[in-house]
Amino acid sequence: MALFWLEGVVNPLGVLTDWRTKPAVPFGGKFRIIDFTLSNCMHSGINKVCVLTQYKSHSLIRHLIKGWTKINNDSGDFLDIVPAQQWTENQTWFQGTADAVFQSLDIIESHGPEYIIILAGDHIYNMDYGEMLAEHVNNGADFSVACFAIEREKAAHQFGVLSVNENGRIIDFEEKPKDPKTISGEDNKALVSMGIYVVSQKYLSSMLRDDSVSERSNHDFGKDIIPEGLRRGDHFHAYMFRNPTNDDPPYWRDVGTVDSYYAANMELLEPEPPLNLYDKAWPIATYQRQLPPAFIKPGKDDSDIQSSIIGSACVIENSEIRRSVIFSEVRVDSGCKISGVLALGGCRIGANCHLQNVILDNGCVVPPGSVIGFDLKADAEKFYITREGVVLINRQMLGQKFSINPGVLGQK
Question: Counting beta carbons within 10 angstroms of the beta carbon of residue 257, is it exposed (0 to 12), middle (13 to 18) or buried (19 or more)?
Answer without folding.
Answer: middle
